[in-house]
Amino acid sequence: MERVVHIIDDDELWRAVLVEMLTKMGDLEVIEWESGDAFHEATGKQPGIALIDVRMPGMSGTELLRQMDQARFLAIMMSGNAEIELAVEAVKRGAFDFLEKPCSIERLAQTIAAGFETFRIRYQREMERAEVFAKFQGLSDREREVTREIVAGSTNREAGDKFGISVRTVEAHRARIMLKLGLPSFADVVRKAHECGFAKSRGET
Fold this sequence. Notes:
This protein is α/β, with parallel strands linked by helices. A 5-stranded parallel sheet has the order 2-1-3-4-5, with helices on both faces. Helix 5 (105-137) crosses helix 9. It contains 9 helices and 5 strands. It is elongated, with a radius of gyration of 23 Å. Strand 4, helix 4 and strand 5 (97-100) form a beta-alpha-beta unit.
């Protein structure tokens, strides 16, 4: 995964300072954004760390954080005012950390390093979740129905009665589902269905 840092700040001078500081840290791709609106409206943004100024014209940093896909971006909020309320609100909304401007290069480097490790783990888990979800979606219509029914707590007989099929047919579906998902037991199917969000999806009834 590329080590990308997005700087989202309306202060051009401060963006230049951050670029210089981040450049000294080594192998980082730094991308500048002059406003929260510009970042939010852009498409095809690379996942990475987002250094976000709290107070900006238009979309504020707090509002951007609220609308940001936090599976793809890890937010570090920044403000020229050391306001505890801002820090608390940012963390409640999912920010990884809160830095006061100006900050030392040592403090920034420590936060960026810790942020990338946290983001790597989070992003890897999200990619794995998406991969498993795609496998569930790749099941046949009936297999998805059977999976959701049993994940919801129905027995084989109850699932069979609901769909008008025999218990043996339900068992055959279960076996094919485990085979397609590459899981050793249906208990693992149930666990993965909950972990990846398939059990909560409403694509079929």
